[in-house]
Design goal:
This protein is an alpha/beta fold and 400 residues long. The protein has two domains: 128 residues, Aspartate Aminotransferase, domain 1, CATH 3.90.1150.10; 242 residues, 3-Layer(aba) Sandwich (Aspartate Aminotransferase, domain 2). 37% of the residues lie in helices and 18% in strands. A hairpin with a 4-residue loop joins β2 and β3. The longest helix has 26 residues. It is globular, with a radius of gyration of 21 Å. The two termini are 40 Å apart.
Length: 400
């Protein structure tokens, strides 16, 4: 049967009907260990009782009122985020791309409000991914995503990842901000070293630029800190988050200092659904769990255990896994064979992983995983490597 869905995804022949914890159950009844987490979205796993209760209780009362009126749960969630971050203000969206759109608009508006409307350009980095809107694909600069959509949105200057001299040369009289992911997600789990983030902060301060962090994938506990930039001890002026903040419910947020947000007065931005009562109830429930005593320490411990186990798998299968990298429960396997084929081998072992750039597969499990799931994932990855070695041997006649 031909699907009525627009064919923008090459979907796997696999559908799920329910989930619990880190496990998904397919329509046919098979269980899969999910180390993709809906691409870092299912931060608290599936059917988490606190999230289910928060959503259902709110659903019985009120779904939508519009931002023409006060939304108390939104005020509460914003205040909690402000108290736990660098920010003074929060704007809620439905997605990471929307949060990034606002971050871009806010950076430009700040410079205009400061008397420098010419400073609208933003420096970004090769390998970055910031969303699928016309502005965010221009910011990301990936030719595959830009092709066929006309002239790219003006105002973005890309520099090679990790090239400090190219970055300095790119700063000109029209530069208004620098935008970066503390760890590139779709780019292949490529962390930005702490000293480099500190250097970016210094450059921005020296040149009157805003520092904008895209923490859509890295934020809300994914790396073992509430936000990944905390590891470097630096703060941005603007930050976009999404994915894990809703635990599976569509929710994003743009956070900013009072100074960075000074141009965003009444009428400069808006949203129909952003900050709706359902999303706010779930967002607060997520923070209840993530901010609970010991939770982030648990993420760090499980991340360390996962990388230790993966190191052993890599040693046994050096012809398959070239490198293990990442932070907390945001881990990448740099592969020798094709990452799409490896993801298929993992699915054959009933383990879900996510392909990324640089021939990497991402491991982005729910943050609530325990030692048993970490060990089981390593076991299944070991089996997937063995599958790949056998396939390579069969196709080439040479032992992998």
């Amino acid at each position: 049967m031909t699907s009525a869905l627009l064919p923008t995804y090459a979907r796997y022949d696999l559908a799920f009907e329910k989930g619990e914890g880190a496990w998904l159950t397919a329509v046919g009844g098979q269980r899969y260990l999910d180390f993709g987490g809906g691409i870092a979205v299912a931060s608290l796993g599936y059917s988490h009782p606190h999230l289910v209760e928060a959503l259902t209780e709110q659903a019985k009362k009120l779904w939508h009122t519009s931002n023409l009126f006060q939304i108390p749960e939104g005020e509460r969630l914003a205040q909690r985020l402000v108290e736990k971050s660098f920010a003074d203000f929060v704007f809620f969206t439905n997605s990471g791309a929307e949060a990034m759109e606002l971050a871009i608009k806010m950076a430009r508006k700040y410079q205009a409000a400061s008397g420098h409307p010419e400073k609208y350009r933003i420096i970004t980095f090769e390998g970055a991914f910031h969303g699928r809107t016309l502005a965010t694909i221009a910011a990301g600069g990936n030719k595959k995503y830009l092709e066929g959509f006309g002239p790219p949105v003006d105002g973005f200057d890309q520099v090679p990842f990790g090239d400090h001299e190219a970055l300095k040369k790119a700063i000109g009289p029209q530069t208004g901000a620098i935008l970066i992911e503390p760890i590139q997600g779709e780019g292949g789990i490529r962390p930005v070293p702490p000293q480099c983030l500190k250097g970016l902060r210094q450059l921005c301060d020296e040149h009157g630029l805003l520092l904008v962090f895209d923490e859509v994938q890295t934020g809300v506990g994914r790396t073992g800190k509430l936000f990944a930039h905390e590891w470097a001890g630096v703060t941005p002026d603007i930050m976009a988050v999404a994915k894990g903040i809703g635990g599976g419910f569509p929710l994003g947020a743009c956070l900013a200092t009072k100074e960075a947000g000074k141009g965003m007065i009444a009428g400069t931005h808006g949203t129909t659904y952003g900050g709706n009562p359902l999303a706010m109830a779930v967002g607060n429930a997520v923070l209840d769990v993530v901010l609970a005593e010991g939770f982030l320490e648990h993420v760090c411990a499980m991340g360390a255990r996962l990388r230790q186990k993966l190191g052993a798998v890599q040693e046994r299968h050096a012809g398959i896994i070239e490198q293990v990298r990442g932070e907390g429960l945001m881990v990448g396997l740099k592969l020798v064979p094709n990452n799409g084929e490896f993801a298929a081998a993992a699915r054959a072992e009933h383990l879900l992983v996510i392909p990324a750039g640089d021939n990497v597969v991402r491991l982005l499990p729910p943050l609530i995983i325990g030692e048993a799931e970490v060990d089981e994932a390593a076991k299944r990855l070991d089996a997937a490597c063995a599958r790949m070695e056998a396939a390579l041997k069969e196709s080439t006649g040479v032992k992998a």
